[in-house]
Each structure stands twice: as structure tokens, then as C-alpha cells.
Write the C-alpha cells for this entry.
Amino acid sequence: MREWPAGMVWRNHFRRSLLEELEARTRDEWGPGERELLGPSLAQFQLGESSDGRHLLRYARKFGEASGDTWLGEAMALFIEEENRHARWLGEFLKAQGYPLLQRCWSDAVFRVLRKGLGFGLMAGVLVCAEIVAVPYYAAVREATASRWLKAICTRLLRDEAMHLRFQATNLGAVWRRWEALRLLRGGHKALMAAICVVVWGEHGEVLRRGGYTRLTFTARCLELLEEVHAGALAAQRKEWTARMPAAVR
Ligand SMILES: [Fe+2]
Ligand SMILES: [Fe+2]
């Protein structure tokens, strides 16, 4: 069977995905108390989704060229476009509720600095932790809100983010083909994920709690998703990536 470059497959995926607009556009309002509960937290996620991904794109292009997958740069550019569309959808919702958007926040700034000097492999490793957190988070927001509009946004974001985890698993797998001491690295990755969970629970615990999570189930869910991403990355490393994708995010 002919094997297509992973970057090309993902470029095609993101092209198709970007053609599909958000389905339900009923512009309703959030319920009582949601401004206080969801507002500050959603504004942070909105900002997080709005990164221009300059460094990520530069690294992806360089890595793609070095590893013989020149499509990767274009796939990454479209991925960033999709994330920015998430920011736009959330921004539209917050603005319609009269809630101000954030220009900056400390956790976003730390995250951006962290990603800047890392190189493609480590950057993808950090990025995937943020993508993983988004899965239980948007599931919790969908549970917590009375707004059908916000629920529809969350449903679509969850669908997109599930594919993002697969995309990042493919990228990690491509990086891992060139790396030694994988066991140690995977251990470090899990430790980073657990540390990020502590910070995210500190900032967004109330929303996650309303969505039915406890600190423990939230952390367990994130670690489970990371495990699935690693399984996908190991398959990608062996170039079996089309056959074995993370099951938990299917
Ligand atoms: Fe996103
Ligand atoms: Fe994402």
C-alpha cells in the first residue's frame, strides 16, 4: 500500500475541517451565575487559543524539511488557523455576553515563553499537554453552561481537539524516531502533565468541578489521554500511525 507523508494527510484533514463552519448559531445567553463562574476562565482559554504560533510554525517547517516531510509546515499553519478559529468562536460568544476579552494573563505568558526556545520535539510535547487539558475542560464547560450556543461551540472544539491530539501524536512519533532514552522522556512528559494539572486545577478547578470532575478524576483523565497520545506516537514512530490512533479520543 502506498504510504502518504503524514504532513500531507494532516494538511488535507485541516483543509477539509476549516471548510466546515460551526453548525448551531442560535445566539443565546449564558445562565445566571455563569458570568462569574465561566467568564474569567473562558477568557483565559480564549486567549490561549489565539496564539499566532510563529515559533511552532518555524520549527515545524525546519523539522519537516530535515525529516523529508515538507508538507508538515503547511499542516501546522492550518492547525494554527483552526486554533485561532476556536479563539474567534469563543471571543464572539464572550463579546455577545458583554464580557471583556483578555489581552494577556500570566499562565499564557509562561506557556508562551516555555514553548519559545524548545525546538520542535519539546515544543510539541508541551503543546500536547495544553491540548489534553482542553478536552476535559470543554467537556466541563458544556456540562456547566445553560447556553446552547456555548454548548455547540464546546462540542465542535472537542471534535477538533480530538483530532489535534492525533496530529500531535503523529508529530511526536516523527520526533521520537530520532531520539534516545524514550522511557525517561515519557516519564518526564507524564510528570509535566501532572504539574500542569495542578496549575490548571488551581485556575479552573471550579469550572471543572461543575462539569463533574474532581481534582483526581481530572488529573487521571489527562494522564489517560497522554497515555493514548504516547501509544499513537509509538505507532507513528514505527510508521504504523494510520492504523493505531489514540482510542480514548476517537
Ligand atoms: Fe483549540
Ligand atoms: Fe487544539
